[in-house]
Each structure stands twice: as C-alpha cells, then as structure tokens.
C-alpha cells in the first residue's frame, strides 16, 4: 500500500464535504396537507447549518403522479404542486447558498413517468417522432410453456424479465399492439438511450438545471441506461430472463462519458451515480470514477446493503461483521489510488442503519454513534440521511394498509393474490426489517403526536418513538446522537487525515471489533469499534508501532477512555477514535 504524504493530496471540495439527504415528502410540512414541502425545508435551513453539513441532496421534487414518490417524472422542469413552486425552489437554493451549503439534485433519466409528454406522444402511434424515445417491442407468439403475464390472444412479453418491483418488466399497450419496457413500475417506462434525441434532450435538461446554479447531481440507477443488445437492437424477441443483463450494459461508459463531455466537464460539481447490482469489480468502478474514467466524482454501490437480503423481498438473511468489513475494505483499498468512495449506511431505499447494523433497543444511542463514527472516519464522502443524526429507527407497521411504498406493496399483493402467502402476518416481520417505508416515516422534530412534522394527517404514519427520539430533545441533551454527529462533522474540517488518510484494516477476522488505522504523513488515527453488546478486549497488532507516540482520544461515544492503546477493553457498542502522532 502506498502511503500518501500531505503534499500529495488531490483536494476537491466534494471530498471534504458531508452530504445531508432530504426526502422532501417526509421532512417538514409547512401547509398542513400531510406532505412535506419545499417551504418546509426552508423553515429548517438553520437546522442544517447548525448541524454543519456542506451539501444537501434533494430527492426528486419534479412534477410527478407519485407512483414511486417522485421517481416517476412527468415534467423535468416543473416542481410538484404538493411540494411548492419554482419560486420556492429558487428561494431554497438561495437560502442554502447563503449558508454555504451546496445543493445537488436527483437526476432520474433511466425512465420517466408514463404521464410525461414524451411517453404520451410515444404511445400514440408507431410513426410519431417520440416513438423511439422508449423501448417498444413486439410480443412473442411462441408461448408454449409460458405461464406468466400475457397480452392479447396468448401473446407473451418480448422476454421474461421481471421488473425490480415485481411482475413482468413489459406492458402491453393496446393502441399500437406493442409492449413497452419498464424495469421498475408499470408507470415508469424506460427511456431508450440508443436514440441520440433522447440523450440530447436529457443533456439539455441537465444544462438548464445547472444554469440555475445547482452544484451537482445524484444520478438515479444510472448504470441501467444501456440496455443489452438483444433489446436495444430491436431484434426479434428473446427468452432472456435475467434482468442482470441490464446492469452496466454494453454502451454505458460511452453514455456517461458523453454526458460528462457535453454537460459536466469544466464545472466543479459533485456527481454521484447510483449503481444498482452486486459485486462490481474495481476495474468497472474506476471506469466510472477513476482519473481516466467517465468523469463521475463517486458512485453508490449496493454491496453492504445486500448482505442481509434473502431471495424474496421480505426474506432477511444474517449478516456478520467480517463480511461487512470485507465489503467496505474492498472499496477502501480498491479506490485508494484512483477514484473516490461515497459512504452511506442508509437512505430512502434502505432500512434505518441503527435497526439494521446496530441495536435499536438498549444500546440505540451508543450504536447510532458508533455507526456515525464509522461513516465519518472511513475514507470517502459521508452521506447522512435525514433522521440518522437522531438515531431514528425502523417502524413497526401493523397492517399492509399502513404501507405506502410500491416496492413493498406490489410483491406482497401479488404474493397474496397468487397464494404464495396466506396473510400479511407471514411477512410482517420481514417487512419490519426490509421495507423502504422504514426510512420514510416523518422526520421527528418534536414529541408531538405527529412528530412535529405536520399539523394535518401525515401521508405515512409517524414512528411512535418520536416521543423519545426527536430533534427538540436531542438538541437539549449534550449527550445525544445529534451532538455527537455535529462533533464528527466538525472534526472532518479540522483534520485532513480524516478525509484523505490511507486506510489500513486491523484484525480482519475479528467478529466483534472493526478496527483500522488512517494515515496521512505523520498523522495517524486509530479507530476501534465494538459491534456487540458485550465488553470486548482489543489488542493492537504488533505491526502498528506506537512506541513513544503521543496518543489522544479525538472522539468516543462513552466520553472518555484511557490512552494506552496497546490493549484495552471496549464497552458495549463503544467507538473510540485516537489521534496518534
Ligand atoms: C432508485 C431510487 C428509488 C427508485 C428507483 C427507481 O433506486 O433511489 O427510490 O424507486 O431508483 O427510480
């Protein structure tokens, strides 16, 4: 491993930043309709500034019928009525910039809504100029043995892909007698990136937002935009059944690079591509984010959030710490010389980190702080998801009616219809662990009945634990997760080693402790994290020389700790970060 010296640092503002993710629907409702909105965010700008974050990533706020909460866009250049107006959005941008906070917008261009003007025209006839904006194919008539969804007269879809939200990935459209591709919901038809006009329109739209002064994009499922040749070339329909073929497709780098060359290059932006799938090689990763790559600042991979996923949506598998360390370490080492990591433990698509990787019972506070310590002391840019800074937890929904998310509702309903499961009770606990709605309950501002989120009826129920876990209580308590997050965010600004230091994993096989050293020139950090509710002894490996070094506890979730770092006992869920110089 090469160790970087301080004078070799390749600085960038987005490497030094902490990003805060806002899911507007659930953040703060200013007008009592039960739905969060942009004026609601504006009311909380000082909150964000107090926390100390540098960037806000805003989930989609564009006009949308909300089949997938804004990820089904009907107009890329308009704000959803429920969220406010373009003037509100402009005020938000100005308010953030006044506080030195940057704004990155969600770019959803793998698909649009079926209510987008392009799609409305596209489905009208086979001849119209928007037909090829989407992926239209003839059905199969060789349907022997095909038991799935069928079109008219027994016609089967062009291939056997299942959409990511369950059910076939093709929908038959009567008007023209063909099928369109939707990798997600039926209301999210996939754009056809093979068509240069689609790319022109997407790039023009990006340019339009950049001219408004935004600071970058988070690119939704961007590695799905290049479809495999059998689909892209309008070949005769196939039996291809593996949706994996849509991931990192054949022309993906050509498209992302073109986006970079035509829109992004020469501007100092933060761009982060969401890369669906598992097991991405470092070669593929650097092709996106490396120095000679396509120009993205960083990417979101899914490897750590797939560790505890079973076959069906509600299946929960065991994860273990060695695997979790393995995934993160692969990326820490893999991008140490070329590329840059994003760091996240939860977001609007994932359950709450403290319920998943920590302990949301007795040690909720300690384990939320420990996970925060991890997030902020690995090498990469941390993404904090709203409420994480409070240690918000998963929510126990009692009936299917309480769920709102299409990714939860579709598969459960079809399993009920098809007799695969007999009742909601069978999947209830699995959903408590896995559903995206765990992360979408209202932000907990106060201990009021609706968590201080709205004066009306919230669009999704508030987690009853807002009685104890809320901003008001957390800010009043010096020992809260919130204050600890603020300290972590501050520390990053004071110590280059936190941002740029090399990562060196200690004790890879240890099943309870995750420990590593970060090094930059003469500066070293020793991070030790006890992922268990038991006291656990730690022994520093001999190869780490601390003879004669000055050791100070930089931050820890139990307040203080001894400074003999050669061996000590970590308390339940204890996190310690030592500075060793
Ligand atoms: C991404 C989004 C998710 C959405 C999906 C389809 O994974 O984060 O919320 O449902 O793409 O747009």
Q: Which regions have little confidence, pLDDT < 50, spanning 5+ residues? A: none
The span between the termini is 20 Å
- Mean pLDDT metric: 95
Q: Kindly provide the radius of gyration, computed on alpha-carbon positions and rounded to a whole number of angstroms.
A: 24 Å
| CATH hierarchy: architecture of the domain at 196-340 | Alpha-Beta Barrel
* Largest β-sheet summary: 8 strands, parallel
What proportion of the residues is helical, as a percent range? 25-40%
List of distinct ligands in this structure: alpha-D-glucopyranose
DSSP summary, beta strand count: 20
The CATH H-level homologous superfamily of the domain at 196-340: Glycosidases
Main sheet: strand order:
11-10-9-5-2-1-13-12
Q: Total number of helical segments?
A: 17
What best-fitting shape do the alpha-carbon axes yield? Answer: globular
Strand content: 15-25%
Structural class: alpha/beta
Would you state the CATH class of the domain at 196-340? Alpha Beta
Could you tell me the CATH topology label of the domain at 196-340: TIM Barrel
């Amino acid at each position: 491993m090469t160790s970087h010296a301080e004078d070799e640092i390749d600085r960038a503002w987005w490497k030094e930043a902490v990003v805060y993710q806002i899911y507007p629907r659930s953040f703060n409702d200013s007008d009592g309709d039960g739905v969060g909105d942009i004026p609601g965010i504006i009311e909380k700008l000082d909150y964000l500034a107090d926390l100390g974050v540098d960037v806000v990533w805003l989930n989609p706020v564009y006009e949308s019928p909300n089949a997938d909460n804004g990820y089904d866009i009907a107009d890329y250049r308009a704000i959803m009525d429920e969220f406010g107006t373009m003037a509100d959005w402009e005020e938000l941008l100005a308010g953030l910039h006044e506080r030195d906070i940057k704004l990155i917008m969600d770019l959803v261009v793998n698909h649009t809504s079926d209510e987008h003007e392009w799609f409305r025209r596209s489905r009208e006839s086979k001849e119209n100029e928007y037909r090829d904006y989407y992926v239209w194919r003839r059905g199969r008539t060789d349907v022997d043995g095909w038991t799935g969804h069928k079109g008219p007269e027994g016609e089967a879809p062009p291939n056997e892909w299942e959409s990511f939200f369950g059910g076939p990935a093709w929908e038959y459209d009567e008007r023209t007698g063909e099928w369109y591709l939707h990798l997600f919901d039926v209301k999210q038809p996939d754009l056809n990136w093979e068509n240069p006009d689609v790319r022109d329109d997407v790039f023009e739209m990006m340019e339009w937002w950049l001219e408004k002064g935004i600071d970058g994009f988070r690119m939704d499922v961007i590695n799905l935009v290049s479809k495999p040749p059998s689909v892209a070339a309008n070949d005769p329909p196939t039996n291809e059944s593996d949706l994996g073929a849509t991931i990192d497709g054949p022309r993906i780098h050509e498209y992302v690079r073109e986006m970079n060359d035509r829109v992004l290059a020469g501007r100092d932006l933060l761009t982060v591509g969401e890369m669906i799938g598992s097991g991405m090689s470092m070669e593929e990763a650097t092709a996106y984010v490396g120095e000679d790559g396509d120009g993205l600042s960083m990417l979101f991979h899914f490897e750590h959030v797939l560790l505890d996923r079973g076959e069906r949506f509600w299946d929960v598998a065991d994860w273990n710490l060695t695997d979790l360390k393995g995934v993160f370490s692969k990326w820490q080492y893999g991008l140490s010389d070329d590329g840059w990591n994003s760091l996240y433990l939860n977001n609007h698509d994932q359950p709450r980190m403290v319920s998943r990787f920590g302990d949301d019972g007795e040690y909720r506070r300690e384990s939320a702080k420990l996970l925060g310590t991890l997030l902020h002391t690995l090498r990469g840019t941390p993404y904090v998801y709203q409420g994480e800074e409070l240690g918000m937890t998963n929510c126990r929904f009692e009936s299917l009616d309480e769920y709102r998310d299409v990714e939860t509702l579709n598969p459960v309903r079809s399993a009920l219809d098809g007799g695969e499961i007999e009742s909601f009770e069978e999947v209830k606990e699995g959903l408590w662990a896995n559903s995206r709605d765990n992360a979408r309950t209202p932000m907990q501002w106060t201990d009021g009945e609706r968590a201080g989120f709205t004066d009306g009826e919230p669009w999704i129920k508030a987690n009853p634990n807002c009685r104890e876990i809320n901003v008001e209580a957390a800010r009043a308590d010096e020992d809260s997760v919130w204050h600890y997050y603020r300290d972590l965010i501050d520390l990053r600004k004071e110590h280059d080693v936190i941002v740029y230091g090399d990562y060196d994993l200690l004790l890879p096989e240890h099943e309870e402790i995750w420990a590593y050293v970060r090094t930059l020139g003469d500066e070293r950090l020793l991070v030790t994290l006890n992922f268990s509710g038991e006291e656990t002894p730690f022994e520093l490996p001999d190869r780490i020389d601390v003879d004669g070094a000055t050791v100070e506890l930089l931050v820890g979730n139990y307040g203080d700790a001894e400074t003999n770092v050669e061996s000590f006992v970590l308390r339940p869920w204890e996190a310690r970060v030592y500075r060793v110089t």
